[in-house]
Amino acid sequence: MKNILFTIFSLIIINCCVAQQATVSVEKNYNNWQWDSVFVAKNKYISIAVVPKAAGRILEYNLGDVPSLWLNPKMFGKSFAPTDLVKKNEWRNFGGYRLVPLPIENCAINSNGDKTQRWPPPAIIGDSPYNAEITTNAEGYKSIKVTSGIQNLPVPTYNGKTKLFNQPATIDEQLQYSRSLYIKPNSSLVYINHTLKNAGDKTIKRGIMTSSQHVSRSKPELEDGENFLAYVPFDKKYKLPNDKQYEIMGTADSRWRYVNRNRMPIDKNNPEDVKRFYNNGTNWTGEVAPGVFEMHYDYYLMSGFHIISSKSWVCYVNKINNTVFAKILEPYNPSLEYDHGLNVSIFMSGMETGYLETEVKTPLYTLQPGKSFDYKEIHGAAKVSSLPVLDVNETGVITNKLSFDTKINKLKGSYGVFYEGDAVVRLMDKSNSIIKDIFLQKVNPLSAFRVSYTLEKHKNASKAIILIKDSNSNEHNLDEVNLKIQ
User: Fold this and answer.
1) Which of 7, 118, 151, 285 satisfies CB 3.0 to 4.6 Å to 108 for a cystine?
2) Around Cβ 442, how many Cβ atoms within 10 Å?
3) Is the dihedral of CA 58, 62, 63, 67 positive or negative?
């Protein structure tokens, strides 16, 4: 009897442990997407789905039941032969998280034999099937790795007059892209490593742009783009090459032409049409907090926004349910070369059902034959109780910075967290030694976290730190404030 009870108890413990772990699997017809092989990583908070036949794109990053990524249902179950003989209207946009090589302006060849850009972007790296495998990284976590075919550059362009493709006389570059990602238990963080390899025999200068196409309406029939936001931090010391803080790429004329051609006939003699559509977009809200720019989705706009992210993050927010999906980037390095001088852009697309796109640009690296560069991103998701987003770090999202009211000795702050664990106030003295840890509450990514705590008198306390202690006793600093306790 004791042996039976011990066995049952052991199975319960094992099942509980397994339930808390992150899992990686290969699923057939996942979410009824009609692909026979979808690589899925899940834990109790998030789900990630990678589709090899859809150019290795990430087509799901959900926090609970809240999706961050827009999908194109017209592309479910489809895959395309690896060829760059594609015309302008043949972009295979699956949605989700994708990439293009940088600079895009010299990836194709025109009828004069000159380098140019092409739409759609290079297809082997952009919309052709990838190889995929499950690996184990150095930390022991199961990872999903995808690898593209060899992308030859420049790619052909279609000549509408001759009805033939302009073919390059020589192949000048060969690129191969791979991406590895993994998640951990009890966290909403996704760790992503991008690798671009020079697979050719000539020295090249290249980077990549990764893009997340985000959900931008709550229902298919609604145009409620004001509920879907992007935030970017900026610093006045980082200017674009034209010495501007930021740049809206559309104009009043381009917006007017786009709406008139693609949405509805509009009339410049109609004051209502002019007021609504003859502008470069009314959704670029501007500086909503010191050093933070906000914008929301506009369905009647096909335009980008260029800026340098000064604090190495950009985020997308579903305002309806106060869910933040943040990207933490490699720090901007002014000594390196970036395509168009920036590391982040936001794009408003009216294509298909429309989506807001957060775009991250790596630096441009000179690569000798056979060499590669790596670029790391960390994505995190959390519920918050307020907006705007003021800051993001690897522990969570700050929507109200930690403050201390000296009259009543009260700490206040508002956050979303990327970890499950114990929220603690740590008091420090002037020599940066720990005085005391004070437990506040249990926290996790699915619940907004507010601090409202009155401190006891500690004469030597000079700083308070809000940190999260996870299930492995690792400590993650979220915010801090200097103190002077009365």
Assistant:
1) 118
2) 11
3) positive
Q: In this structure, are residues 249 and 305 in contact, taking their beta carbons and an 8 Å threshold?
A: yes
**What is the C-alpha separation between 372 and 196, in angstroms, rounded?**
5
- Provide the CA 93 distance to its chain's centre, in angstroms: 17
> Taking Cα atoms as reference points, which of 356, 234, 358 lies closest to residue 296?
356
- Residue 452 CA to residue 429 CA, distance in Å, equals 21
Give the C-alpha separation, 344 to 362, whole Å: 9
Beta strand spans in 2-56 (E): 23-27, 38-42, 46-51
SS3 (DSSP) at 31? helix
Count of CB atoms situated within 10 Å of the CB of 87: 13
For 268-296, write each residue's pLDDT tens digit: 999 999 999 999 999 999 999 999 999 99
Nearest to 466 by CA among 406, 429, 411: 411
Q: What pLDDT is attached to residue 457? A: 75
| Chain segment 178-202, per-residue pLDDT in tens | 999 999 999 999 999 999 999 999 9
Q: What is the pLDDT of residues 305-333, one digit of tens each?
A: 999 999 999 999 999 999 999 999 999 99
The C-alpha angle with vertex 21 and arms to 19 and 24, in degrees rounded to 5, equals 105
Nearest Cα neighbor of 70 from 258, 301, 349 is 349
